[in-house]
From TrEMBL:
GO cellular component, one term: cytosol
A Pfam short name: tRNA-synt_2d
Protein name (record): Phenylalanine--tRNA ligase alpha subunit
Substrates-to-products reaction catalysed: tRNA(Phe) + L-phenylalanine + ATP = L-phenylalanyl-tRNA(Phe) + AMP + diphosphate + H(+)
Cofactor: Mg(2+)
Location in the cell: Cytoplasm
Keyword annotations of the record: Aminoacyl-tRNA synthetase, ATP-binding, Cytoplasm, Ligase, Magnesium, Metal-binding, Nucleotide-binding, Protein biosynthesis
InterPro entries linked to this entry: aa-tRNA-synth_II, aa-tRNA-synth_II/BPL/LPL, Phe-tRNA-synth_IIc_asu, Phenylalanyl-tRNA_Synthase, PheRS_DBD3
Sample GO molecular function, one term: aminoacyl-tRNA deacylase activity
Length: 509
């Protein structure tokens, strides 16, 4: 290593009687280079050292010029002395330069070196003593001057500046030696075989060294925001619904929600249908030993439910006149990728109807829509969905609940806009004022489930159910400042972004 100073330092110490000063021994070596070597030597107790901060005086470019070529006034004197018949004042700048002429002429008069004879300059002395040049030369060699007044004066004249310099006072340490022996970092098989381990010197462990970062997995931002939402739901007494069914039937995704079979959302352009197998088996009664039923749950008669749904669509039932169209069983058995997690909520409400009681459920999982992909839309995204079933619920209660729910994620101003969903009445779009973005943003969709959806499954007439849904992507993009959804999800995602993004915190009240 060209810049390794360990050997020069050990050499310098061996020929010195006591401590050495790095600024004397190695005046032109950068202090960082010296310190690196000192730290290596000190870690083996070969040297000890103290750091000395001192102030050094260095020449400015103008000072350098004077140290080499003389002061302005000396230049003027020389020019005047060289002109045997006197020097015209107006010729001076051409000979010594404009700057030297201006400053030097006055100083040369002050020192009595030249005199004026009409418009001619003549020398007033045989020889001069150029003090400024000498002072600057001393400073250039020693980085200091014995007379502090001189330094102050030169500084005022902008010929020198002062700087901080670090130097080291170096002494021999308890384990000083002339040679810096390379220390072994590994005990090798060869060293054991040839016996060299007995005399080798081993490098001690450095317990202060930082460990290398271990590669590890990292949570995706969507997962972090999801966890924050889960915490809010758990705090508010919600149970998490099982959302592991990405493939659903038209029945659970649409028919059970009173979505007519001609509804545009059921078009191929909006929904991904499964081609193989394209259809589910028709519904049947729960077998008495259904392993999915909890001990307290009664087996359910899905055939009866399915028949109720057909009737409420086709002819009307439960006080509703229905849609009055021929309902197709095949359409309701078509397999598709669920377009919302309300299919899961419906399934859970149907289970609840077997034993109706107040309940709060939520889910956060993936849904699929056959949509054109752009900066804010993908063909799959995550929905956050909640349902509350209870007796005596009102629309005012839903609005009040939303205010509490969204306040928990730092959204305090809400607006509700009447909307339409086939399965809720009334329905409301929820807008929140985002202080960071400074505008109103749509944050969710909500409503009270219709009797045409609840009564076929056996929910009692006086039980009301709130439902609402929002996307997980939108708050995540806002939180992490991501403007293109494709930077968050999909094959173009920057893994470094995933590994280094911070934990999310929804501002709490
Ligand atoms: N399913 C609705 C959506 O996809 C959200 C919603 C759920 C609305 C429950 C009302 C009730 O936007």
């Amino acid at each position: 290593m060209a810049s390794d100073m360990t050997a020069p330092i050990l050499d310098a110490l061996s020929s010195a009687d006591g401590p050495i000063l790095s600024s004397d021994a190695f005046p032109s070596t950068p202090s960082l280079t010296i310190k690196a070597a000192l730290d290596r030597l000190a870690s083996r107790s070969m040297v000890t050292y103290d750091t000395i901060d001192r102030e050094v005086v260095v020449l400015t470019p103008e000072g350098e010029d004077i140290a080499a070529n003389g002061s302005h006034e000396a230049k003027v004197f020389q020019a005047v002395a060289a002109a045997l018949d006197g020097l015209k004042i107006s010729d001076l700048p051409c000979i010594v330069g404009k700057d030297s002429a201006k400053v030097g002429q006055g100083n040369a008069f002050k020192r009595g070196w030249i005199k004026k004879d009409k418009d001619l300059l003549r020398p007033n002395t045989e020889s001069i003593h150029d003090e400024t040049k000498e002072q600057l030369q001393t400073i250039k060699e020693t980085q200091t001057h014995p007379d502090a007044k001189v330094v102050a004066d030169l500084k005022k004249r902008k010929l020198v500046t002062t700087q901080k310099a670090i130097s080291f006072k170096i002494s021999k340490g308890p384990k000083y030696a002339r040679q810096f022996v390379k220390e072994e970092t590994d005990l090798t098989a060869e060293m054991l075989a040839d016996g060299s381990w007995k005399t080798a010197s081993f490098k001690p462990y450095n317990f202060k060294a930082k460990g290398a970062p271990t590669p590890s997995g990292a949570l995706h931002p969507l997962n972090k925001v999801r966890q924050e939402f889960r915490n809010i739901f758990f705090e508010m007494g919600f149970e998490e619904m099982p959302t592991n069914r990405f493939v659903e039937t038209g029945f659970w995704n649409f028919d059970a929600l009173f979505v007519p079979q001609q509804h545009p959302a059921r078009d191929l352009q909006d929904t991904f249908y499964i081609s193989d197998p394209a259809k589910a088996d028709p519904p049947r009664e729960d077998p008495p030993n259904n392993p999915h039923l909890k001990p307290a749950e009664k087996p359910r008669d899905y055939k009866e439910y399915w028949e109720n749904v057909r009737q409420v669509h086709e002819t009307g039932k439960y006080g509703s006149i229905g849609y009055r169209y021929p309902w197709s069983a095949d359409e309701s058995l078509r397999l598709l990728l669920r377009t919302h997690t309300t299919s899961v909520s419906t399934y859970m409400l149907h289970k609840l109807a077997a034993n109706p009681r107040p309940a709060r459920y939520f889910s956060i999982d993936r849904v699929f829509r056959n949509e054109a992909v752009d900066a804010t839309h993908l063909a799959e995204f995550h929905q956050i969905e909640g349902v509350i079933a209870d007796f005596g619920l009102t629309l005012g209660g839903l609005i009040g609940f939303m205010e509490v729910f969204f306040a928990k994620m730092g959204i305090h101003r809400l607006r509700f806009k009447p909307a339409y969903n086939p399965y809720t009445e009334p329905s409301m779009e929820i807008f929140g004022y985002h202080t960071g973005l400074g505008k109103w943003v749509e944050i969710g969709n909500s409503g009270m489930f219709r009797p045409e959806m609840l009564e076929p499954m056996g929910i009692p007439k006086d039980m009301r159910v709130y439902g609402w849904g929002l996307s997980l992507e939108r708050p995540t993009m806002i939180k992490y400042g991501v403007s293109n959804i494709r930077d968050l999800l999909g094959h173009k995602v920057d893994l470094n972004f995933i590994e280094t993004n911070p934990a999310v915190r929804l501002e709490k009240d």
